[in-house]
């Protein structure tokens, strides 16, 4: 196999250059003399991620399609830390990108299965407040166009940008508890009863009937005795004012003199 360089990165102080080669090796070079200093062995597939530490010139991070993430000491040519991105029941997940935080204490990776992996020092408690699977219940819902070619949500017949904030659900469409619903912008201060979505039965493409979030508490809020959405109230008020202005214009036009002797006055 003809060797090819897949990625290249300078270290923090520019004294070293690290290249990733398609034979799964990482090579550390002296940037002034071009001398090969170290061969870093560990990856089992091609590497497309090389990240230097923001202030420690010794540290370099590498990650690849084999699911491996390595922290290297490139001055010694040694491996400092290693993580293998194994996903239960699905094998390993290829790591597509990694970035250090500005303070150098954390780094984050994304993989081929849509996961965000966060590594660093300290406690992971701040990251435990969210569930493993988070989707909006409106994700992947079909859209239609009206007679004016405007986009509408097929189910509610509303423009998507005028719909209330969506609910958080898992991958199967089951809504999360109310404490997670408050993480959605616009639902931070809602009462518990307003954070419980309406559920219904929806037929999937396979013909299976599943229970999912099917609607928002909008039109039926008044009938159910629920507090109406502030946004919905403003929209209805604006529409009412526009209707009143339109009616007043039409009334003034109909009462105008036909011989042109006078000018009608608008109240």
UniProtKB/TrEMBL annotation:
Write out the ranges of the annotated region (Disordered): 239-267
Query: What SMART domains does its record include?
Result: WD40
Give the Pfam families listed for this entry: WD40
Origin species, per record, is Furnarius figulus
| Repeat positions for WD | 1-39, 40-82
The root-end lineage is: Eukaryota, Metazoa, Chordata, Craniata, Vertebrata
GO-annotated biological processes: cytoskeleton organization; regulation of cell shape; regulation of transcription by RNA polymerase II
- Its protein name is BRWD1 protein
Question: Which segments show compositional bias classed as Polar residues?
Answer: 249-261
What GO cellular component entries does it have? nucleus
- The keyword Repeat appears for this protein: yes
Which UniProt keywords are given for this protein, alphabetically ordered?
Repeat, WD repeat
